[in-house]
Amino acid sequence: MKMTTRTLLSGVALSGATLAMAFGSVDRAQAASIGLGNTGVGTYSVTGGGSTTIVPNGAFPIGPWLANDATSSWIGSTSVAPGNYTYSTTFDLAGLNAGTALISGNWAGDNSGVSILLNGSATGISANAGSVNFASFTAFNIDSTANFAAGLNTLSFTINNFDDGQGNNPAGIRVAMTGSADASEVPEPSDFVGTAFAFGSVVLLKRKMSKKKLG
Questions:
Q1: Distance between CA 3 and CA 155 in Å, rounded?
Q2: From CA 149, how far away is CA 168, in angstroms rounded?
Q3: Residue 81: strand pairing partners
Q4: What predicted TM-score, i.e. pTM, was given to this entire model?
Q5: Whole-angstrom Cα distance, residue 31 to residue 29?
Q6: In sequence order, what are the beta bridge partners of 118?
Q7: What are the two backbone dihedrals, phi and then psi, of residue 195, each rounded to the nearest 5 degrees?
Q8: For labeling, which of 8, 142, 172, 207 is most exposed (least CB within 10 Å)?
Q9: Quick one: average pLDDT of 9-37?
Q10: Measured at the alpha carbon of residue 155, what is the angle toward residues 163 and 160, in degrees to the nearest 5?
């Protein structure tokens, strides 16, 4: 009688382990790239009355502005009123784990970089005219503690066009960035098979126990 009890308990414990393995097994894919749009390549909108027109190499004010390349181009106006202008683009984290998202890149602006916002929340990133200007890039990084959302996200860059006392003057921005996030954890098809097998084992064990008691 004792031997039978040990055998049955061992079988139940094994089935429990099988169930735990079946439920706990997930497929964690490697980090995937986020589809980000650089200025001059992706789609941007602007608030404040500015423009998202691409400013080509060889046209004013590129010369003092950092030259465009194949990665990104300047967007903006060659003549616009002083003030703040916010350039926004969207990206989608569908199928990705928003809590693991990271973005890094470079930005330049005419004149100062006021802020970078993610879904309307400040990231704490800004730069003055001495670092984000039209002659060079400044690096930025947005880590996973920022306000990333599952699904559609909006990334915004605000620059300030200085008042030089002469009225309208050039204002624009250039952004080149990349991003990544882990794929969402999804159970593998084999896990469902394992789970079904484990449940079946428990049912069979219970039937065997019932028959032995009846016997």
A1: 67
A2: 37
A3: none
A4: 0.74
A5: 7
A6: 121, 155
A7: -65, -45
A8: 207
A9: 54
A10: 5
170 token code pair: 């050039």
CA 88 – CA 99 distance, rounded (Å): 21
The position carrying tokens 């800004």 is 126
How far is residue 44's CA from residue 158's CA, in Å, rounded to a whole number? 12
Q: Tally the C-alpha atoms within 13 A of residue 96's C-alpha that lie toward its C-beta.
A: 25
Q: Are the beta carbons of 144 and 99 closer than 8 angstroms? A: yes
pLDDT tens, position by position, 45-93: 999 988 999 999 999 999 999 999 999 999 999 999 999 999 999 999 9
Token readout for 15 is: 């089935």
Cα separation, 63 vs 59, whole angstroms: 8
Residue 139: count of CB within 10 angstroms of its CB: 11
The separation between the first and the last C-alpha atoms of the chain, rounded to the nearest angstrom, is 12
What is the chain's length? 215
**β-sheet bridge partners, residue 174:** 108
pLDDT in tens, 153-204: 999 999 999 998 989 999 999 999 999 999 987 554 544 444 444 444 444 4
Three-class SS of residue 168?
coil
Query: What are the strands, taking DSSP E only, across 17-163?
Result: 31-33, 45-47, 54-55, 74-80, 83-92, 102-110, 112-118, 121-122, 138-142, 152-161
